[in-house]
Amino acid sequence: MTSWAERMHRRAATFSNVVTSCGHPPVPYPRRLEKVKFGIPLDEVCKNDIPGPLLVLILKLNKEAPFKKDVFRAPGHQGNMKKLIHFLQAGRLVNLDNFSVHTIASVLKKFLRKIPGGIFGRGGEQRLFAVIDLPTIEEQRDQIHRLITSLPTYTQRLLVLLFGTFRVIATNAERARTGMTSEALGVSVAPSFFQSCVSDGKTAKMEDVMRFKVATRIMKFLIDNFGVSNLFGRENYEFYARITGRILKVEEDWIFSFRYPPATLVSREYLLVMLQMTA
């Protein structure tokens, strides 16, 4: 395990113990956590890595959201959203058991929506809009892989955690009857990832509607192809597996283990070691 992952585990474990504890400290706010500021560039939020409080929010959703209905679609409690955002921005300790997964998901969407230029950047958004119309799925995967791996490391890791979480939610949608398929997730979260598909005015223009539809297609593609190809890159998949402890079930009869063969080619024959499930 890398030193970065070890630090994240220690920080996430410490923060998780604090935010999930039902007890109360003898004095208010005995220690401060990293601040998660909304509306500032991602490099200022993450600096060298993902802030522990933000990581724990995603991990809680990764664990609990697959079994809850309408997460990322149903709105969170407005009062609790304001309270949680205040705690995150102030670096204050917070008991996450007091907040529903719908509230946490809504806060996360707002954080992403407030990133200046969006998580992909304006140029990245334009490239994704072009890539989704390429003639073959192999070309689409390769171009998206190049785009994602060209982003800063903290952005790559944030993206792989987010889309890994979306994927596990979508995979469980039918069995858990949550309604959150990859298409439903795409519709629900696209405006938080693609700022160019959000209208500046009060009334959406036809162009905005068309861009929103394309953005939802891109989101669905990224969710459906998470883990089945080298979309996010070897190191990012390994990071996701280490941090979440998951081996992602992608298809009905297969489990994808995030281990790679020696070859580093970005081709579908040499992407992931697939272990067929036994009855």
Automatic annotation (TrEMBL):
SMART domains associated with the record: RhoGAP
**What terms describe the molecular function in GO for this protein?**
GTPase activator activity
Q: Which residues form the Rho-GAP domain?
A: 40-230
Q: Name one GO biological process term.
A: signal transduction
Signal peptide coordinates: none
Name this polypeptide is given: Rho-GAP domain-containing protein
The species is Cryptotermes secundus
